[in-house]
Amino acid sequence: MKTIYEVGGILNKGFVGQISYTVCLDKEYEEMDLCFSFDKQRHTTITEELKEELILACNGEYGIESASDEEIQRAMKEMKTEIHTIASMNDVFIGGVHKQLTTRHMHFSKDHTSEGCIRQDRIHGVIKLTLVVFNVILDDTHYNVSLSVNE
Q1: 60, 78, 96: which is the final residue of a domain?
Q2: CA distance linking residue 40 with residue 117, whole number of Å
Q3: Same domain, 102 and 37
Q4: In whole angstroms, what is the distance from residue 36 CA to residue 96 CA?
Q5: From residue 133, how far is each of 6, 14, 61, 144 by CA, in Å?
Q6: Which end of the chain is more exposed for a tag (fewer CB within 10 A), N or C?
Q7: What does the pLDDT look like over 8-20, one tens digit per residue?
Q8: Do 91 and 36 fall into the same domain?
């Protein structure tokens, strides 16, 4: 497959929103792969600053003023950056992947598609990939999007 579009960016902690990329294909293709990847999905180390931040957030939301190290460890393991991907072709939905994988492919052809995607006899026109960002837990979370095709 030949990569015809690639872009990346950096998300910071607390970002919530949608980011869309639009690619106008120059001709009709038989196969397409949209790849999305990001890093820093979960906390790797739990610092005193992070513990204090969690307790402050819980205090403001639930009135909790302290927590045991076990409770904090469990909460930190459950926290994750959540980003979903949605694809459309010519303003028609063709797929969505909501699995929390740090790398995911949305593959389209007339014979095969990735889970969550709709088979396409013809790949042409305007391709739009939307990243639906629910929660970013770490600053400087890098992401990459690429679109590859086969004639």
Answers
A1: 78
A2: 26
A3: yes
A4: 12
A5: 19, 10, 22, 14
A6: C
A7: 999 998 899 999 9
A8: yes
Q: What is the pLDDT of residue 107?
A: 95
CATH of the domain at 11: 2.60.120.380
First-to-last C-alpha distance (Å) of the chain: 9
CA distance 12 to 14: 6
Same domain, residue pair 112 and 123:
yes
Local confidence pLDDT in tens for the 151 residues of the chain: 999 999 999 999 889 999 999 999 999 999 999 999 988 776 667 777 777 777 676 665 555 566 666 777 777 777 777 889 999 999 999 999 887 777 889 999 999 999 999 999 999 999 999 999 988 878 889 999 999 999 8
Please tell me the distance from the alpha carbon of residue 10 to that of residue 79, in angstroms, as a whole number. 19
Predicted local confidence at residue 111, as pLDDT = 92
Range of the domain at 143: 2-42+80-150
